[in-house]
Amino acid sequence: MKHTGNQHVSVRKFLYKHPLFGRGDWRNEPQNIKATRTGVRWDHSVYYWWFQYLLRNEDYKEHCQNGAGDFDQLYGDFGDIHAYADDFKGWFNERGPNLFGEQLAELKVEELEVGADGLVDDERVIYLQIPIHQNPKRLVRQVERIIARHQRATKTADETSTALYPIYTNPNVSALERYLKVWDMRRAGVSATDVHVQLFGTVTDAQIRKSYEARGEGVDRNDINRIRSKRYYSVVARAYQTAAAIIANVGKGLFPCSEPQKG
Hints:
This protein is mainly alpha-helical. It is built from nine helices and five strands.
């Protein structure tokens, strides 16, 4: 929880499923963690991958170490995540809700005086005029119909995030995980062929022939290995470049974003 002025603000609601850590050994027994309506196993949450990508940003790492670079605001919000490199749970519990939680004013049902000041301009609130001299049961039915209509409209509308750091675009968590594995493996010197085989699978001779035949072309068996190596390199290079762009942009407070950004 945090306060903004005199208004009490809740930050425990997330637009995307937040990480769950269970009650046991969350690092070594994640399979025992059961998903809920609002949460998923910690390594299936987009917020975990935000953390992991920021760990790979070398400029931010240097700022954490010696204050270099223009990261004062980001550092003030995310802190020295390298001090928590092996403790995502500790870091998220300390900072995650304030960074990624929705900044929603806590609303309640209340009676307003005629001409009351400070009416909330919020799409989650409606104001009704209720003639109290009428039959109460009839009034309740009317109010229920009005509320139901507005709730349906709210559910169909796009939800705009009020988080300090909103998710940039709808995330594909499995793809984010694979891009980062490509990044780590290539940085560790693993060949494009081995990366592709481990993360994307093997391209068989039959698959290569079929793709050429679909274009009405033939392929010499002596060229198959060259074609396969070229495909491996191309797929891995694209994934690596995507990871590099996301890593650069997460240092600007944007995630997951693989689009070029100014500045």
